[in-house]
Amino acid sequence: MPRKKFDIATAIANLSAYAEQNLDANHLDIIYAHNQLLSLFKLSQPSEPDNPLPDFQNGILEPIVKYAIKNKLCKPEEALLFETKIMGYVMPSPGTVVSAFDAIAANESVKKATDYLNTLSVKSNYIRMPDIQKNIKWTAPGPKGDLTVTINLSKPEKDNKQLEKERLLPQTNYPKCKLCIQNIGYAGALNYPPRQTLRAIPIYLADEQWYFQFSPYVYFDNHCIALSAEHRPMSITPATFTRLLDFVDLFPHYFIGSNADLPIVGGSILTHDHFQGGSKILPMLHRPAKKLFHSQAFPNVGIAILDWYNSVICLTSQNRAELEKVAAYILHNWRNYSDEGNGIFAKTKEQHNTVTPIASYNETSGYTLHLILRNNRTDETHPHGIFHPTEDMHNIKKEGIGIIEAMGTFILPGRLYKEIESVVEILTGKTPLNFAELSDESHPLYKHVAMIAQLANDHGTNLDDEAAETAVVNHINSTCFKILQCTAVFKDTETGNNAFENYLKKMNFQQQ
Ligand SMILES: [Zn+2]
Hints:
The chain is α+β, with helices and mostly antiparallel strands. Helices cover 38% and strands 16% of the residues. It folds into three domains: 8-124, no CATH class; 234-387 and 490-512, no CATH class; 414-487, no CATH class. It has 16 helices and 14 strands. The longest helix has 23 residues, at 465-487. The radius of gyration is 26 Å and the shape is globular. Zinc ion binds next to loops.
């Protein structure tokens, strides 16, 4: 059968029909949007949609964008900006989405309401599922719980030409950052993601205006963000615990946590107070206690050292007010706690001790707060951080170890995928092992030279494909475990464990 000739008017009708059927868009709003699209594509009258509708991604959206590029409505490098712009036309308005969310939460359940927003985010391509599905994910088995490892291939690699174009673009200070609520509807630019399809729900946390939205990058199921209405720096204070627990009161089916408020141990955005959360699937959340404590001052709170790779105090209680008090007490103590023998200095010229707090709720045990103890001090031998992966692990991960990794979910850079393939070629003998070439700084595998030497020494260079791949993956897995151990302020040694217990005892917590 000959392929039907592409007709832009039909394609636009298909997009409008898709939105009405899948995005819960109002019929009048769709008539309105359809007219805007006709104007954008300089068409005088509409066509009927196909029946049945073609596939959204390949049959509707991509052909429209291709047509737009061919007819100079957008430049090839602006495809994503243009695609998001036309999706913005057919999306229900931000206010309509809030009303729909609130109605579902009131009449059905808050879980149904978050499911609605998540589905809308996927079906509108705000969450680009076909890209996310490119990510490579596996489990790294470990003695204190398995880790999840993801190679992030969902962000397309940019070539040098594109990077140069981006570099030459004027820098603006609007929106102030990628988390500001002013991003809703923002057209973006080559160096800034378009956000016409972003929708957020206003919420109150500790009597303050915040917003709830999904992350477009989906590092785990239902990966969501809560952000302050005010563009202000991340800051962990007792009020943070109140806000986190208010969040789990609103969304008891999700966990929520805040990155630490200092560089190296915080996340990539320290300039805007925000939390990250989602389904309670991150490995740390499922770990048992290693040592139990109790406190006369806080008799209704279970206090424990968690059996995990870094240093976590786990607090559990049905009594929210008391839980907040003990968390504030520990935060105050930790900010000022030094243990020179174990290299912990609370502050030198500046503050080093802080926490990564995570809240969750469970009907049986009540509220839980996990406090991951962090320290960002550097010295001459550890310029990247004393409690940070050492340089020999930077070929796998160099960036700060934020909340998601600290909880056992590793997101590794997309470049690793091709690099692993090249290392496999060496271990199978398809590419001769040549240290002189690898030691040249311009070689793409230069950063992996120590890892390659180790793997070649342990396994030789005559492996079959599967064995070679397993060897590299095992090396990455063990590096991820080492990275977490590096972030532990109290090491998992007799000295470290004693020091951790002593710290709790100094706060008048008695071991059970
Ligand atoms: Zn901001």
